[in-house]
Write a structure and sequence with these properties.
Length: 270
């Protein structure tokens, strides 16, 4: 059942491991884990959605489920299949979705400005919090995610939402989205795919931006991580990789680090 929050020793153990390992789980470092939110819920036992190897690993190792499932998915040559498996396992109470906050991303909340009916696209919309934030600020929002379970959970969490939640793949997006959005938000999604897929993902991202619009890109900053001991996912970005969103008429407006240098926060326009 979704929506309850049962105290759980496995979750506590995993949380402790995350703290012990320092910044290696930087896409949620510094943000408390929330386990009470739709398909992001965390509990402990039972079979995993698919993949016998991943099933055994989730149930018997202290390794985070996202890492176990990502490894199995990538071994099959599939860079994104593990996301839905993770959300499905979480919805059944068998894993946790580590990026689930139960509220909008704080850096996006700090940035948020009036949309006045303009169109916004939220990449990797997950459980919908960032999309709902922008909708509340007057943007006409499309939120998309490659994981059908996440899209269904977002719709369930916000049944009266005006957000258009869509299942779509950044690596193969709908052609109708070409230069269609006044705001494009990419927060810590592309870094969750191996680097081989990055050029295609960044080209898609740039293609969504309408003339005069704003694209926000935030990813873990490689320059301030201990990359010698890093375990993926995620795969952190270099500064020049973030800058490479400036292609095909898109130009960089600003690139800063936030969270004590742990993340890039970049804005672009066309
Ligand atoms: C690490 S989570 C970040 C979620 C959210 N942006 C946040 O900041 O909490 C990555 C999300 O992107 C989605 N995703 C990963 N690859 C994708 C792709 N190729 N196209 C669309 N969504 C994708 C995943 O299903 C997941 O919900």
């Amino acid at each position: 059942m979704l929506g309850s929050n049962v105290p759980d020793l496995d979750v506590e153990r995993r949380r402790a491991l995350i703290v012990e390992k320092g910044g290696d789980r930087a896409y949620w470092a510094g943000e408390p884990l929330h386990t009470d939110s739709g398909a992001g819920r965390a509990v402990k036992t039972g079979p995993v959605g698919s993949g016998a190897v991943a099933k055994v690993a989730i149930m018997t190792t202290p390794e985070p489920a996202d890492r176990v499932l990502a490894r199995a998915s990538l071994a099959e040559g599939d860079p994104t299949g593990w996301f839905d498996r993770l959300y499905t396992a979480a919805a059944r109470g068998e894993a946790e979705v580590p990026w689930t906050r139960g509220r909008p991303h704080p850096d996006l909340a700090a940035w948020a400005r009036p949309g006045e009916g303009r169109r916004a696209l939220v990449v990797g919309s997950a459980l919908g919090d960032d999309s709902e934030l922008l909708s509340a600020h007057g943007w006409a929002v499309t939120g998309f995610d490659v994981a059908p379970t996440a899209v269904a959970a977002a719709r369930d969490r916000f049944p009266r939402s005006t957000v258009d939640y869509v299942v779509a793949d950044l690596l193969n997006p709908p052609s109708a989205w070409h230069r269609a959005f006044d705001l494009v938000v990419e927060i810590m999604n592309i870094q969750a795919m191996p680097r081989d897929f990055r050029p295609a993902a960044l080209t898609s991202l740039a293609s969504f931006l309408a003339p005069g619009g704003t694209a926000i890109v935030s990813e873990v900053a490689e320059e301030n991580q201990d990359m010698a001991n890093w375990q993926s996912p995620p795969w952190p970005f270099s500064r020049s990789e973030v800058e490479s969103v400036a292609q095909d008429g898109v130009r960089l407006v600003g690139l800063d680090t936030v969270r004590d240098g742990a993340r890039y926060w970049a804005t672009f326009t066309r």
